[in-house]
Amino acid sequence: MHKYYVSVFFILVVIYVLYSKEIYTEKTNFGYIKLSSNALKGENLWLQNNCNACHQLYGLGGYMGPDLTNVSSHPQKSAEYLKVMMISGVKSMPKFNFSSDEQEYILQFLKEVDRTGYYPNRNAQIKYTGWVQYQKKENNEK
Ligand code: HEC
Q: Which residues form the Cytochrome c domain (predicted)?
């Protein structure tokens, strides 16, 4: 009887080791995301001006304003509209005194964020294994 427990213990240890190895050495390709230098300037403006206090990217941030993850590819929201939103101040969206270059940098940042995926990921599918298959952006150049 005692031997039986010992072998069960060792089997569990082996399963644990194999499972851990599988999980920690899995090389899932999440893609390599690199912002252009203008988008990096835009990200700095985004951070310095605390846009995230009211806006979200991928649902994370403050909730006074809308999520901006995919705002740059929104069919009804042109670049002009987005720039005007930034510099005119609408309702609780403050007015920012960005130069036209700075507006371009922020737009570039939002554009490159947009390329990374969808939020909310409405077409995600739950597979029979329980894993979630996200809908990915096909056209990364958009
Ligand atoms: C104090 C809160 C607040 C801060 C800070 C803020 N926003 Fe906003 N923003 C809002 C609100 C609220 C709206 C929605 C205004 C409306 O449509 O009535 C908005 C709207 C927008 C829109 C238009 C979104 C759309 O879908 O129409 C853009 C673009 C935007 N903000 C960019 C920015 C950027 C860039 C910053 C930082 C430089 C920023 N916001 C900082 C509150 C904020």
A: 37-114
For the chain, domains (ranges, CATH) are 37-115 (1.10.760.10)
Please tell me the distance between residue 76's alpha carbon and the centre of ligand 1 in angstroms. Answer: 16
pLDDT digits (tens, 9 = 90+) for 80-132: 999 999 999 889 999 999 999 999 999 999 999 999 899 999 889 999 888 88
User: Is 76 within 8 Å of 12 (Cβ atoms)?
Assistant: no
Q: Which atom of ligand 1 is nearest to the CA of 62?
A: 2
Burial of 40 (0-12, 13-18, 19+ CB in 10 A): middle
Which ligand 1 atom is the nearest neighbour of the CA of 98?
38
* Residue 142, pLDDT above cutoff 70: no
For 1-27, write each residue's pLDDT tens digit.
Answer: 688 999 999 999 999 999 999 888 877
Residue 59 near residue 120 (C-beta atoms within 8 A)? yes
Widest distance between CA atoms in the chain: 79
CA of 65 from ligand 1 middle (Å) equals 5
